[in-house]
Amino acid sequence: MFKREELIPAAEEILARVPLPKSLQKIKAERDALASQVIRGETDKLLLIIGPCSAHESKPVLDYVERLGKLNEKVQDKIVIVPRIYTNKPRTKGVGYKGMFTQPDPRSKEDILKGILTIRHLHIDAIGASGLSAADEMLYPENYAYLEDLLTYIAVGARSSENQMHRLVASGIDLPVGIKNPMSGSVPVLLNSIYAAQSGGQVFKYQNYQVRTTGNELAHAVLRGAVDGYGNDIPNFHYETVMKVIEGYSQTGLKNPAIIIDTNHSNSGKQFKQQIRIVEEVLNNRLYDRDFKKYVKGFMIESFIEEGNQKEDIIYGKSITDPCLGWEDTERLVLDIANKV
């Protein structure tokens, strides 16, 4: 049984209440174009989606993103940096902290309306502080409408990639949408998800309207590793595995074929320091094989101010969900990537 607690205003009302200032709209459009150029293969720059596992408090996230903005000035000729500001957190067992969208203060009760307003202010402030527009995960497809004017990159998670509504909404977005391989690691399922997202003419109910989509030619693959029937992690960033995905891509006729490597999750076994080694291996493989380089166009990296994680929000700038690289390692790694692109 559902118990109604509070009426949430429509997305149009929220966007009007907390609009993206015109002074930042130009920056956002420029960042959208840069990220899209990478996926289309119109540039040799790498796309780097980087930031904390989940954004649980605005102040440290803004601090982190401002640092990224300064780092971007050093690497922008080689890398397109998109801050990872993830405000919805998937839970394997369905319980626990579900992100700022639902719970803007992890120490307090759920308050979705306050959460929506808080994350709009956070994304807007982040653009203003860094000159960079961000990525977020489309965990709940209906929620995307509350952020659609702020994001440059949208991720569809491994548990969502087989879901019909995620595929349909992705087909109506005109920005890069990274679709992760399902938890099983199935390449055919991943490519079918991308096919659905790229297909136009999808008709469904969205935000109280019947809508028809035009298809999203910027939908692409994200490899995050898999989990077998016994709960063991199976990496899929190695050369042989990536080449199998490339082979599958080549047989589909999908537009703008692209692969982003998620360096954490099942690729690292959540051993966050391994992200550095994974990036190095992938960069070396890009040097070794022209097809590998042509398809592999970036990374997702989990990083925050302080390395590791914590159960409660005690240490400033430290993840309360999955463990992350600290800032010193992050800065070194980003500069290293720029040197090897």
Describe the structure.
- This protein has 341 residues and is of the alpha/beta class.
- The protein has a single domain, classed as Alpha-Beta Barrel (TIM Barrel), CATH 3.20.20.70.
- It is built from 10 helices and 12 strands.
- The strands form 3 sheets. Strands 2-1-12-11-8-5-4-3 form an 8-stranded parallel β-sheet.
- The longest helix has 19 residues.
- The termini are far apart.
- The model has no long low-confidence stretch (mean pLDDT 95).
What oligomerization state is this entry in?
Answer: single chain
Q: What order do the helices and strands follow? A: HHEHEHEEHEHEEEEEHEHHEH
SS-based structural class?
Answer: alpha/beta
Shape: globular
**What is the CATH architecture assignment?**
Alpha-Beta Barrel
Q: Any idea of the CATH topology? A: TIM Barrel
Beta-strand proportion: 15-25%
Helix-residue proportion? 25-40%
Domains, number = 1
Number of helices: 10
Count of DSSP E strands?
A: 12
**Biggest β-sheet, characterized?**
8 strands, parallel
Largest sheet strand order: 2-1-12-11-8-5-4-3
Task: Give the distance, in angstroms, between the N- and C-terminal Cα atoms.
Answer: 54 Å
* The level-1 CATH class: Alpha Beta
Give unreliable regions as ranges: none
CATH H-level superfamily: Aldolase class I
Rg (C-alpha, Å): 19 Å
The pLDDT mean sits at 95
